[in-house]
Design goal:
single chain, 3 helices
Length: about 425
């Protein structure tokens, strides 16, 4: 009997015919097959008869256990379960499973995280390097070279001396007045001198007189404020009275009124804004005759003219107009009312128009006039004492008549509003 397996070197026991490790025949089984023993029909599973070539652990052929230790993951049949003998197959011809089922390969999630982190770090480094190179290219510094020169070589001409700085001329004390007179001579608007203004309570009153040449003109362009003009036969100049009302003394002083004088005449500018703490009104006296033209305009305010026989040009955006003049008149009102007083015989035509508002004509005495009155979207109302009749024209009315044998034209027109002709 061999003491070890000639194939794998495993230790052999007495009477053993096959190596328990590799299944190689040893002992009397070398060169032949081991006898096969079958259980009888009445044999119990779990009690096996001693097989040839095996070493029973006890008499009577009790059940045997595996030599190797059992693993918890392997399948182990219970003692009560029947066993089936391998018939026709030599022992060791089929390998027996010793270990449990194969373990799944471990998942390599950590490698993916490390790869993504490496790509991110690489991209961030490349972006930072590109940004730094761009900054260096766009913020290139300016290099200033300082060259030190030594003393001039022998024989070189000496540099010329620096000429002395001349003394500043003395500024005349009346320089401001000279500048103001030069601007005034060129027609530049200048603020009215308020040194002699009268301050009383909430009012500041400024009065100025402007000389007018023969056939000169007077104009007033006001942002906000009422303008009243009266003709006088006792003056050859324009007397302007500006009244500032409300606010403090400083606020009234800040509401500037400008005046420009030229060979053509005098132009007044009122810059006080509407809705402020200070309201400004203008009272103007002009020669009744001899004035070339009177021009008045306002963005928000009323205009009233009386006892003036010269040419009048009026423009009102928001306000009313009241005119009594024997001269030529051209009046335009956008939003507001117009009142006209007409008497006697005129030599010049007068024309009044209103876009949104009413227009009223008062005929005093026995006027000699060619009257035309029309309303595009409204009515023309005539006093019963006048021999006039309004004709329907579309959505409005119109009156055309010669009164007193006719005379200079008087044309009044309203777009959205009514015309009233009074006696």
């Amino acid at each position: 009997m061999q003491e070890s397996c000639p194939n794998c070197g495993a230790e052999l026991y007495g009477g053993q015919q096959f190596c328990r490790r590799c299944g190689t025949p040893v002992g009397s089984a070398v060169g032949g097959e081991a006898p096969t023993q079958l259980f009888g029909a009445g044999a119990q599973a779990g009690v096996a008869a001693p097989l040839a070539g095996t070493s029973p652990l006890g008499a009577g052929g009790g059940p045997t256990d595996s030599v190797a230790g059992q693993r918890p993951t392997e399948y182990h049949p219970q003692a009560s379960q029947p066993t089936t003998a391998l018939v026709g197959e030599p022992f060791g011809s089929r390998p027996l499973a010793v270990g449990g089922p194969p373990r799944p390969a471990p998942k390599r999630r950590g490698l993916w995280v490390a790869a993504l982190l490496a790509v991110f770090v690489l991209g961030a480094g490349l972006a930072s390097a590109a940004a730094f190179l761009w900054w260096r290219a766009t913020h290139a510094g300016t290099v200033i070279r300082v060259v030190k020169t030594g003393p001039p070589p022998p024989g070189a001409p000496a540099p010329p001396d620096v000429p002395p700085i001349p003394d500043m001329p003395e500024i005349p004390s009346d320089l401001g007045q000279r500048i103001q007179e030069a601007l005034k001579a060129h027609g530049v608007p200048l603020p009215l001198d308020e040194s002699g203004a009268v301050v009383s309570g909430d009012d500041t009153t400024i009065t100025r007189t402007f000389n007018l040449d023969s056939d000169g003109s007077f104009a007033a362009h006001v942002v906000a404020g009422n303008v009243t003009v009266v003709g006088s036969e006792d003056t050859d100049a324009a007397v302007v009275k500006v009244v500032k009302h409300g606010g403090s003394v400083q606020e009234r002083a800040a509401a500037r009124v400008l005046a420009a004088e030229s060979e053509e005449g005098v132009t007044l500018f009122g810059a006080a804004a509407p809705g402020g703490p200070v309201s400004v009104s203008y009272e103007i006296t002009v020669p009744r005759k001899g004035l070339g033209k009177l021009q008045l305009s306002t963005q928000k305010g009323d205009i009233k003219i009386s006892e003036f026989d010269g040419d009048v040009d009026l423009n009102v955006a928001n306000g009313s107009v009241n005119v009594s003049s024997n001269g030529a008149v051209h009046s335009r009102v956008v939003n507001g009312k117009t009142s006209v007083t007409y008497a006697g015989r005129h030599e010049e035509a007068q024309e009044f128009s209103v876009v949104n508002g009413d227009l009223e004509v008062s005929l005093n005495g026995e006027p000699e006039v060619d009257l035309t009155a029309a309303s595009t979207n409204g009515h023309v109302e005539v006093d019963a004492a006048l021999p006039l009749k309004a004709d329907r024209r579309g959505s409005g009315q119109k009156v055309e008549a010669e009164l007193g044998g006719g005379g200079a034209p008087l044309n009044v027109k309203v777009v959205n509003g009514n015309v009233r002709i009074r006696k």
